[in-house]
Amino acid sequence: MPDVTSLETLEEAPHAEVFEERTPRTVRLQLDADDRVPKHRHPESNVVIHLIDGAVDLTLGEEVFGLEPGDVVRFDGDQDVSPYAVEDSTALVVFAPKTDA
């Protein structure tokens, strides 16, 4: 049976778990304008970020990528990452466990 969830009903901020099962971990990231998530890493994961609305400057390592609604970025989580909300923003973030394949 599918589990249907609306991102708008999730209340935790800035991170809200989308599903109870956390493999792969999926969160709704909601940031107010001028909010920044400090540099951090997710070394066991490949990460996918889909920007739903707003505008985010995403720092990966030493590079900054300007994201607009509809953009999808995927990257190895074993590097510094820090999203900064240029304006109120919502993104869906998936942390996919790395495999030895």
TrEMBL record:
Q: Where is this region: Disordered?
A: 1-21
Compositional bias (Basic and acidic residues) spans?
A: 12-21
Cupin type-2 domain boundaries: 32-80
Q: Which domain of life is it from?
A: Archaea
Protein name (Swiss-Prot/TrEMBL): Cupin 2 conserved barrel domain protein
Q: Organism source for this protein?
A: Natrinema versiforme JCM 10478
Q: What is the lineage of its organism?
A: Archaea, Methanobacteriati, Methanobacteriota, Stenosarchaea group, Halobacteria
